[in-house]
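User: Please predict the structure of the protein below. I'd like the answer in structure-token form so I can feed it into my own downstream comparison script.

Assistant: Understood. Taking the following sequence of 150 residues as input:
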Amino acid sequence: MTMQKPGRYMATVVGLHGAVVAMHAVAHHALGITQPAWQVLFIALVIVLGPPAAFGLWGLRRYRAGARLLLGTMAAALLFGTYFHFLETGPDHVGFVPDTGAGWLFRISAVLLAITEAWGCRAGRRLARAIPRRSASRTSTPPPLPGPRL
């Protein structure tokens, strides 16, 4: 089975984000940085499981729902990460990790998370907008990606 271009686009966004999440989790573990239970739950449901679930909906031809879930989970992850990695003073802040290999991995992966999550927001928005209104959330073929905006 060959995936259509929008499906590959979503798969690329979700896959790269997942790789960066894994890299960041390794840095968290190496540095011994833990989170409260509510943050662990948010990370598990929204950041780790949300984007693959969006891709799963896309695979089930629930294009609008998949695109919206991708946009929502990536936006929530971006806000969460921006706050805890760059704004809130604490052990999860990029400025408070040691200047070791794991500290640098933490810093780099925190920035890469922000980049991939912003990209995921853009992808979800573009994909949702590309779906014709008449099709609701179910169509027989995925919508084409819109061209560049001038």
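That's the full token string. Residues 101-130 form the longest helix (30 residues).
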